[in-house]
Fold:
Amino acid sequence: MSLQNEKNTERYLGKKIKRFLFIRPKNLKYYKLAFLHSSLSNNIEGKHNNERLEFLGDSILSSVVTRFLFLEYPEEREGYLSEIRSRYIKREYLNKVGKRLGLHHFLNYKGHFDFEHQHILGNTFEALIGAIFLDKGFYSVIEFWEKLIQENIINTEEILQDINYKNELINYIKRKGSQLEFFDEELIEDNKKIYLSSVIIDKKTISKGKGYSKKDSQKEAAKNAYLKLINL
Structure:
C-alpha cells in the first residue's frame, strides 16, 4: 500500500470511528490494533493483535463501572454493587454491547466466526476501551461509557431484569453448604387469590414474597433473600 493510500485508509477509519463509535481519535494506531484479531496476527510483522489491549481494557472497564455504580446508587451496600457490576462486565453482556456498536464492521479477522455466541465482539469492546484509555485517558473512557448509556446501547434496566434471583440464591446457598427451602401459602386479598412464599435457610425464615402465581411469589421471595444475604 502506498503512503497516500495508507493515509486515505486511516482518514476513513478515523471518520468511521467518530461517526459510529462517538470517539474523536487522536492516535489511530491504538484503534487499528484494537480491531486486529489474533487470527491475523501471524500475518503481521511482530505478531501484534488486540489481546494486550483487551487485557488493559478489562481492568479499565471494571474501574469505570465501579465508579458509575458508586455514584448512581449512593444508598446501596457493597454486596449489591458488586453483584450488579459483575452483570455489566459479564462477557455475554459485553458481546451484546459490541454487537450493538457494530464492532464486527470494524474488526479485521481471518476465517469464519459466530459473533452471536462467541465472545469476540465482547473482547473487541474491551480492546476498544484499552485503546481509548491509551489515546485519550481515563476520563475519556468515562465519557464514552456515559454516551453508551445515553444512547441506550448499555441499558441499566436490562441488566437488572436479566438477574434470575432464584438461581442466584440456590447457587449462593450451595456455596455456603446450607439448606434452602421454599414454603408456599395461598391467601385471599381483596377477593383475589394470591401466594405468599417464604425462603427458609437452615430452618430459619429469611424473607417472604407475594405474587398472583407461585412462581412470582417465589421469585420475589428469592430476590429479597438474595439481596439481604449479599448485603450482610
Remarks:
- The radius of gyration is 23 Å.
- The CA atoms of residues 87 and 163 lie 8 Å apart.
- The beta strands are 180-189, 192-201, 204-211.
